[in-house]
Amino acid sequence: MARNNQMARNNQKDWRSRRDVLKVAGAVVGGGALARLVVQPAAATPAMMEEAIRSFVGQAAIKKGKVKLNIPPLVENGNSVPCTVSVDSAMTAADYVKAIHIFNEKNPQPYIISVALGPRAGRAEFSTRIRLADSQTVTAIAELSDGTFWSDGADVIVTLAACIEETTH
């Protein structure tokens, strides 16, 4: 009987130590989750935007023209900024826009959107709404079927910033 009581006490001690370990582990995990919830301003830079552009176009030259980026030069709220991109293209089987990409220089991530097109699209144009973290330059790049890249850019002044959450990699 004494032996059974001793074993029960030892098991109880083990259980407490496991419980304590789980409490500590839970606190560490919870603390890590809270650290990720901390709001920080966007940390992207124009160099990061250039790097994101190069990931799409490689070393190809980007020419100005053919692309029209229509975005307001002054927006009150960066949470919903209207944006239209159109490209001057015949959109035939021999001459068409393959894709249109939009980049920005100060959001947490410089790449905004990529729209794939083809000759059956009819015209190379789309509209969307984007979020902007701060006043910055927005760039649209069109990839044509002949392998050339064309661009347009616009400076946008934002009075109420958006995109201030922290990104995770």
Fold and architecture overview:
The protein is an alpha+beta fold and 169 residues long. It folds into two domains: 1-38; 46-160, SoxY domain (Immunoglobulin-like), CATH 2.60.40.2470. It has helices at 2-36, 46-57, and strands at 62-64, 67-70, 74-77, 81-87, 97-104, 111-116, 124-130, 136-144, 149-160. The strands form two sheets. Strands 1, 3, 5, 6, 8 and 9 form a six-stranded mixed β-sheet that branches. The chain is elongated. The N and C termini lie far apart (58 Å).
CATH class membership of the largest domain: Mainly Beta
Query: Order of helices and strands, N to C?
Result: HHEEEEEEEEE
Please state the structural category. Answer: alpha+beta
Cα(first) to Cα(last) distance is: 58 Å
Radius of gyration: 26 Å
User: Helical residue percent?
Assistant: 25-40%
Mean pLDDT, to the nearest integer, reads 83
Instruction: Please report the total strand number as a whole number.
Output: 9
> What is the correct CATH architecture of the largest domain?
Sandwich
Strand content: 35-45%
Give the topology.
Layout: H1 2-36, H2 46-57, E1 62-64, E2 67-70, E3 74-77, E4 81-87, E5 97-104, E6 111-116, E7 124-130, E8 136-144, E9 149-160
Parallel strand pairs: 1-9, 3-9
Antiparallel strand pairs: 2-4, 4-7, 5-6, 5-8, 8-9
Give a quick rundown of the structure.
The protein has 169 residues and is α+β, with helices and mostly antiparallel strands. It has two domains: 1-38; 46-160, Sandwich (Immunoglobulin-like), CATH 2.60.40.2470. It has helices spanning 2-36, 46-57, and strands at residues 62-64, 67-70, 74-77, 81-87, 97-104, 111-116, 124-130, 136-144, 149-160.
